[in-house]
Amino acid sequence: MSSTSAPVPAPDADPRRNVRERIVAAAAELLHEDGADAVTTRAVAVRAGVQAPTIYRLFGDKDGLLDAVAEHAMTVFAAEKAALVADGAAEGTDPVAALRSGWDATIAFGLANPDLFVIMSDPRRGRGSPAVAAGLRALEERLRRVAAVGRLLVREADAVRLVHAAGTGTVLAILEEAGEAEDDRRSDLADRAWAAVASQVLVAEDDVPAGPDRALRTAALTLRAGVDGLDALSPAERAVLAEWLDRVVDGTDGGADASDGGA
What we know:
Blueprint: H1 15-34, H2 41-48, H3 52-59, H4 62-91, H5 95-112, H6 114-120, H7 123-126, H8 130-148, H9 156-176, H10 183-201, H11 214-225, H12 235-250, H13 254-261
């Protein structure tokens, strides 16, 4: 991640949009400097150089303004993560190392912007957020590259949920201890949390298959991650292949009965 400070919107040529962005920028600055309690309509209005009614007209209330600040921050952060993913792919970075760098970036951002991160982590704000969706797509792309080199232990969708939940939970746990935790304790918690989630989603580089099906399952996970890009197959064929590969990953033989029944 290129920065850890709260992002501030750039000016826009549209006067109405410029006013909105000035207000969001003022609120973001107050939030970053003094926390959520400092983001009052009066303080934001003074810093943005507008009248308080303008804030109510554009955002409804303080919660609406905080929603706008969180969405903007998530948009900037998601764009930075997407750029890191693209750079890593172009430079041939090890996919597992890239996944870890994304984890570290999330932890660093959360600790540098505690009040903002708490707001962004509110499930109510995350639902339907284009910025949250973009951030998850960046994580999906990182995990897809991990799968492509045979290092993904679980299905991509499950890995996304685990990594995202663990990263968010780790930041919130560290912030909860902010008054008593030393920097090395924070780093230790982040490292141990990463080790725990990695053990659940990654195949160790020198791992020897534990059973006769392990190698096939890993291969199925790798192919499953690239099914959508198999242009030689029709959409219907890709859907069928994805279903078959999911059965291999899950260790089921759901197709046997159907096959017998159709004979």
